[in-house]
Amino acid sequence: MKSNAGSHEWVYLHINSGQNYVLSNGIEFRDFYFALSQHFHHLLLLKHQYENASYNMHTHMEYVSSDEKENLLREPISSYGDFCWIDFEDEAGLDEMTAHEIAELLYLGHMKQHLRAPFFRKLNNQFVYLAEEDGELNRIYYRDWTLFYSMLSQVLTAKWNQHRKSKGLIKWKKEKAVPDIPKEVIMSIVPLLKEGAIISFQHASAAKGKVEIPLWLVGDYESLDDLEEETRARIKDQPSAWLTYERKSKEWTASVKQTS
Known about the structure:
This is Oxalate:formate antiporter. By secondary structure, the protein is of the alpha+beta class. The protein is built from 7 helices and 13 strands.
């Protein structure tokens, strides 16, 4: 069940809205980049193995400039181990960082968590991306939650389309890939994601003019082994919710099982 790089079988999400981060499994840098790259400029690398980075003399840290960041997509990031970065708007702001703020950045990369809210006025950063192994229990901070909803609407749809292709589910050339899930539909399952949930493409179906993708509540986990064990137990039960696409109406909906 392990969700290695390139796997499209399932996604785990746990939203911690009080501290502005999402813990996820099954979403890697490539997914994040294609969904949200237009919302960040340069990347300050906190922990990495990228060999072609630029160097900032003030912070003594390496970074990837906006016009070079696509080069990261050609890198074997999943083999890096630690891959942590924070975006920043321009190098002038980076050069104004205080010693205390630089220490906070170092703590983020080393401990994979924050000392204070990790959004810096001088950097005007939108994200903090912290991974010990990319795609496996990433911790990503979002300044603006609408960007998380936008990312998820695109990534879940892309993973379904990739899954159906890999399983040979496209029977007719005229059959089109499903459109992105609307952000409003994503927002309707946020209460479940705040508890910790698995979205499984392995258990999804495409028949009778509709696509159905199940979701199970599994809880809050920071151990991949524990998460996998809990998921194996939970998927024996009825799903907690379904994401459904009706081909005739061309509409996505979410149906959440009522609990007593």
